[in-house]
Structure formats: structure tokens, C-alpha cells
Amino acid sequence: MTGITRVSKEFIFSDLNNLEVVTTTSNKYTDAFGFAQEEVSEALSEFGLSDLEQGVKDWYDGFTFGNRTDIYNPWFIINFLDKGKLGTYWANTSSNSLVGKLIRGGSKEVKMIMEDLLDDGTLQTEIDEQIVFNQLDYNEAAIWSLLLASGYLKVEKYWLDEDMEAEKYELKLTNKEVKMMFRNMIRDWFKNYSPSYNDFIKALLAGDIEAMNEYMNHITLDVFSNFGTSNELHEI
């Protein structure tokens, strides 16, 4: 059986019990989930695309399983060999609605972490790889476990924090295609808003205080014009 997260956890009285769960950090079957670097290099050579190998690596490499850090999603490579050009192939195979919902509905801290990850930053956190699907709605930290399990994040470093008695992970966005997927997702959140509001968001993200003030002053004037003069406001 395969899946991204557990549907439930077994216990002594369950019909399905004593399962061995193999996760992305397990060293079992590390080369069975995708193409290794040598296989990709050989395939590119056969199709006469070796000159694009570095681009393929930047876009599609980065999936990690246990100690293997050079695994490629087969869907990436098959589509690239078929079409001969770099593009977002895997990210477009689903709506990514669950991931979008968790990030958009998350706290300010979650959004700040995502902003840092999009700027090639890393996240140091604990990971619960045994997370159950129905815990995602009320365990905000579980979002990083989900993103790791589903391939959007990769493990850069792992260590045991003896002082905190916890396993720590340093995580990063998997590759360029995943980064583009998140950028497009965030941009789509604002596409149905007014142009002036989108300008405000751009100014906010850029830290342009002057442009933000200009937007707020414009909104204030619109409010007063809708209600009339100050005398009319007084009468109301």
C-alpha cells in the first residue's frame, strides 16, 4: 500500500495491525521511488539532450529518500524526454488544494516561513512522519510533515537534539519546479482582487511604505466621498 499520510493508526484491536511504515527518511527502498542521477544522465544521452542536463538537475532533482539525495520524480523525466523542454509537469498534475488551504489558513508564522523558503531559505523543525490525515486541521506544525511526505520539501540535514530530546530536521523546497508552483499558487490567491489591492500587496511584499500609504489614503478618500461631506457625516 502507498500513500502520503496515514488514514488512521492501528492498535491492538484493529483488523489491520503491525504495519511497517516506510517514510521519506527511511533507508529502505531508497532507490525504488524514482530515477537516480546516473539513470537520468543515461536517458538524456540516449535522447540527445545531454546539453540540458544541468537545467534538468536544477528543475527536477532534489527528492530525498533516506540517504539518497539524487532521486528524480519519473513523471518529470518522462515528460521532459517526450517534450524536450523544461516546464512544470508534476506540479500541474493536481490542484494542490490541500496544501494551499493549509498555508493560506495558517498563522502569520506559517506564511513568514513560506516566504523565507521561497527565498531559498531553510526551516528547522520537528517532524512527525506518523501524522494521521485528520490531524492536519488542528495541528499546524503538521503542515511541514505533509509537505515533506508529499515531496514539496526535502531534508537538508537531520540531527538529534539531546537537550530538547527531539529529532530535528532542516528542510528546504525540493527544486525549482516546486518553487514556481508555490509562487503561482500565491499569485492566484490575489488575482480576483481589484488592481489597486494587488498593488497594495506588491508594495507590502516589497516593503514600499510610500506606496502603501498612497493606497491607504486613496481608500480613505473613497470612503469619505461615498458618505458625502463632513457635515453630512455629522448629520448621520
Structure report:
- This protein is α+β, with helices and mostly antiparallel strands and 236 residues long.
- Among the domains are: 98-173, no CATH class; 195-235, no CATH class.
- The chain has ten helices and five strands.
- The chain has helices spanning 37-46, 53-60, 74-83, 97-104, 108-118, 142-149, 176-189, 195-206, 209-227, 230-235; strands spanning 63-65, 68-71, 123-125, 153-161, 166-173.
- A three-stranded antiparallel beta sheet has the order 3-5-4. A two-stranded antiparallel ribbon has the order 1-2.
- α8 packs antiparallel against α9.
- The chain is globular and about 60 Å long.
- The termini are far apart.
Cα(first) to Cα(last) distance is 67 Å
Major sheet attributes: 3 strands, antiparallel
What is the number of helices?
A: 10
Give the neighbour order of strands across the main sheet. Answer: 3-5-4
Give the helices and strands as they follow along the chain: HHEEHHHEHEEHHHH
Radius of gyration: 23 Å
Mean residue pLDDT = 76
Amount of beta strand: 5-15%
Structural class: alpha+beta
Report the helical percentage: 40-55%
User: What's the overall geometry?
Assistant: globular
Quantity of strands, as a count: 5
Could you list the spans in which at least 5 consecutive residues all have pLDDT below 50?
227-236
